Amino acid sequence: MERIHGKQTFQLDAADLERLLINYDEMLIDIGTGDGRFVREMAQERKTRLAIGIDACRENLREGSRRAPANAIFLIARAEQLPHELYGLATHLTINFPWGSLLWGLLDGNTALLQSLAAIARPGARLEVRLNPSALAVAGRALDEGAILVRRNLRDAGFAIEPPVELKTHALRACPTTWARKLAFGREPRALLLAGTRMAAAADGMLARGAAVPSAAGIQHQ
Ligand SMILES: C[S@@+](CC[C@H](N)C(=O)[O-])C[C@H]1O[C@@H](n2cnc3c(N)ncnc32)[C@H](O)[C@@H]1O
Is residue 216 part of a domain? Predict the structure, then answer.
C-alpha cells in the first residue's frame, strides 16, 4: 500500500499494519477522502480508532496528511483496487460526497468497486454514503433517483442499506467534511445519507438473487 505523509510517500505492508492495529479497537476507512478533514476529525474524536483516508488523487492528500494525528493515516489508491491488506478490517466505511469514477461506479454498479468495498468491510461494519444533488446532476440523475440506484447496488454487494435520510443545513454543518460545509453554505443545502451494515458472506448470495428493490419513497429527514 502506498502511504502518504506530506510530500513523502512510502510503502506500508501487512506486517506494518498489523503492528499499528494493536493499538486500536476500530478501523474507519473513508474512501474519496479529498483533503482528509473527515479522517482527521474522526481520529481526534476517538483515540482508540484508527482512521484511514483513501483517495486516488495524491495532490488532494498532501497537505491534509501532513497535519494528521497519530491515529490517522492516508493512502493513495483507487476505490476500484483497494489494497488487499485492508480486506476484512474496516469496522466503519464512509464515502462522503463522491464524484467522478467513484460516483459513477456506485451508480452503475461497477463490479470492481463494489467488490472492493465489500472486501474491506468486516461483517457487521457500518457503511455511510452521502450523496449531493450537484454531483448527481453532473451524472445526469436526480438525487432521489441516484440514491435508489446506489442503494440497490450496495445491497447486491452485500450491504443491508436503510431508507435514505435527508440531510439539510443543520446536519450538513455538523458533518465534518469540506464538501459538507460547501453544501451547507451553498445554494442548495441538501444531501442524502445512505447508511447500513455489511452482512455476513452467507447473505450475499441471497441478495444477489434479488429480493424486491425498495423505493426511495420512505426518505427520512434530519
Ligand atoms: C467531491 S470530493 C469529496 C471529498 C471529501 N470526501 C469531502 O467530503 O470533502 C470527491 C473525492 O473523490 C475522489 N475520487 C473520485 N473517484 C475516485 C476513485 N475512483 N477512487 C478514489 N478516490 C476517488 C476524488 O479525488 C475527490 O477527492
Answer: no
